TrEMBL record:
Keywords: Methyltransferase, RNA-binding, S-adenosyl-L-methionine, Transferase. PANTHER family: 28S RRNA (CYTOSINE-C(5))-METHYLTRANSFERASE, NOP2 YEAST -RELATED NOL1/NOP2/FMU SUN DOMAIN-CONTAINING. Residues 533-552 have a biased composition (Basic residues). The keyword Electron transport does not apply. It comes from Scophthalmus maximus (Turbot). This is SAM-dependent MTase RsmB/NOP-type domain-containing protein.
């Protein structure tokens, strides 16, 4: 009975727009999540039909059941696989079964249909008619695709090889094939059930929609790297990342909901994942500059969304369009904040963004806004052979849908930090470091008017061997200054203007011995003691010596 009580509670919350159906199911921490999810989806899909049956038979008045509990019980009694409960409630429902069956038969006769699905509204009927294949991802942490294929063949299933086109997904009950886009995904007929299968219970296969496998597959992080799964629960994408990484490296997984994280921990344990570090934390509060995440290069971001791509939730919009638009706007704002935050990790190379939504507002519009705010990133073109692209102009992205890809509705975009932006950042860092180096080894620009006109100090690899600009402003424009030892300030230069008392070059200290001790500027004592006057007097002295030598 616990199944129906929980299903009724989730169905009521979903119809009141208190959360996405999938989120509500996983938050419940019910023992058999898949069974609960299937029941709620089907009861919600047939909700209007079930309500008519309940009203026409006055079931609520005679049983005192809550409306949503009556819906899930009536669904399993008439349209599902039979009631999965016992006791007084089963006895009560069986007592009213004949009247309910008669009411259902009258509805079919009135609408001239023979199947339950034909009673659905046209828009819901189209979604119900899109019978999706059952997809299974092989968990390569525990086995190989070839071994799983052999196991199913020994079980009596007929292997059809690798699919070449979408029509190959029209499989009979005992047939299966290998997907044409994702090599680790196998495709089965829609009603194939694996919940009690050995390979599922042992963690060798993961029940995951093909579109949901795209984010990790496209991010494709190499083994040994550091990766973040930002909104990780329920954990299928996390286990897929770990398989691609071969359990080597670090996989940080965040989720704000402690219950969902506990369910995810169990799933990862069954899948054999060992490289994970789970954190019950809001991803938006994670510090990208923390030393713990300094080596993060890849991020997978699959934030909360409207869930409008899920087949069982399709066309489940309320009559209040204004309220629906406000909810979409709120979700898009949250998604953009998550995306901008994810791009802040300093060593990030690639980030994959995905939603199970069909709304442009949550997909292309979010990516467009993000690219405008983060010009250092660009979109990476994805899977040229994929049949459905992102809406114009973002055709690099992928979309998925029931008719075009035979999957749930989905959106994927891959953002990459491009080299030009990285080079520009490095150039800016160099430009910022040059003034700091100049300030550490020389006086301010205001004290060296000539130095600012020459590029030599900023590009010369050995500035310590050049004359000090603060002492000899004219050295940068005097050819002799770069080769004449006398151009450097001597110990006597600060106390005497006499050039004749300048010691020989061999007695001068080597430049490398004094580079850590900048020479103080000389004290000016009149026009005769200026550096320019000293030079002229030195030149005159040399000319006199040369003339005397010539005369001799």
């Amino acid at each position: 009975m616990a199944l129906y009580v929980k299903a009724a509670d989730i169905l009521e919350k979903a119809e009141r727009k208190q959360g996405a159906l999938k989120t509500l199911v996983y938050d419940s921490r019910f023992e058999n999540i898949k069974q609960l999810f299937a029941l709620v989806c089907e009861a919600q899909k047939f909700s209007s039909i079930l309500q008519q049956l309940i009203d026409s038979t006055k079931l609520l008045k005679q049983t005192r059941l809550r409306p949503h509990l009556a819906k899930v019980l009536v669904y399993d009694l008439l349209m599902g696989q039979g009631l999965k409960c016992g006791g007084a409630w089963k006895v009560m429902m069986m007592k009213h079964r004949s009247r309910l069956q008669a009411a259902l038969a009258r509805m079919k006769i009135k609408q001239n249909v023979s199947r339950n699905e034909d009673l659905l509204p046209a828009n819901v009927q189209r979604a119900a008619g899109d019978r999706l294949p059952r997809y299974v991802r092989v968990n390569t942490l525990k086995t190989t695709v070839e071994d799983v294929v052999d196991y199913f063949k020994r079980d009596g299933l007929s292997y059809q090889g690798q699919a070449a086109r979408l029509d190959d997904f029209t499989l009979k009950e005992a047939e299966f094939a290998r997907d044409q886009h994702l090599p680790e995904v196998l495709v089965f007929s829609p009603k194939t059930d694996f919940h009690d299968h050995f390979l599922y219970k042992a963690g060798h296969i993961i029940l995951q929609d093909k579109a949901s496998c795209l984010p990790a597959y496209l991010l494709n992080p190499p083994p040994g790297r550091h990766i973040i799964d930002a909104c990780a629960a329920p954990g299928n994408k996390t286990s897929h990342l770990a398989a691609i990484m071969k359990n080597k490296g670090k996989l940080f997984a965040f989720d704000l909901d402690a219950k969902r994280l506990a369910t995810m921990s169990t799933l990862l344990l069954r899948a054999g994942v060992t490289c994970q570090q789970l954190a019950n934390q809001d991803f938006l509060k994670v510090d990208p500059d923390s030393a713990q995440y300094k080596d993060v290069e890849y991020v997978l971001l699959d934030p909360s969304c409207s869930g409008s791509g899920m087949v069982c939730l399709r066309d489940n919009t309320s009559a209040d369009q204004e309220k629906d638009q406000a909810r979409l706007a709120s979700l898009a704002s949250f998604q953009l904040r998550c995306l901008n935050h994810g791009l802040r990790f300093p060593r990030l190379k690639r980030l994959v963004y995905s939603t199970c939504s069909i709304h442009r507002q949550e997909n292309e519009d979010v990516i467009t806004a993000c690219l405008q705010q983060n010009p250092g990133f660009r979109l990476v073109p994805l899977l040229a052979q994929w049949p459905e692209r992102g809406l114009e102009p973002l055709t690099q992205c992928l979309r998925a849908g029931t008719t075009t890809t035979r999957t749930h509705g989905f959106f994927v975009a891959l953002l990459e930090k491009h080299i030009e932006a990285e080079n520009m950042k490095q150039d800016r860092d160099v430009e910022m470091s040059v003034p700091e180096a100049t300030a550490a080894h020389g006086p301010p620009a205001s004290e060296t008017p000539e130095a600012s006109k020459t590029p030599k100090p900023s590009v010369t690899p050995e500035p310590s061997k050049m004359p000090t600009p603060s002492v000899t402003p004219e050295a940068s424009v005097t050819p002799e200054a770069s080769v004449t030892p006398e151009a450097s300030v001597t110990p006597e230069a600060s106390v005497t203007p006499e050039a004749s008392e300048t010691p020989d070059a061999s007695e001068m200290p080597d430049a490398s011995e004094t580079e850590d001790n900048p020479t103080p500027a000389p004290q000016l004592q009149g026009s005769d003691s200026t550096p320019g006057m000293k030079k002229r007097r030195k030149r005159n002295k040399k000319k006199k010596k040369k003339a005397a030598t010539t005369v001799e």
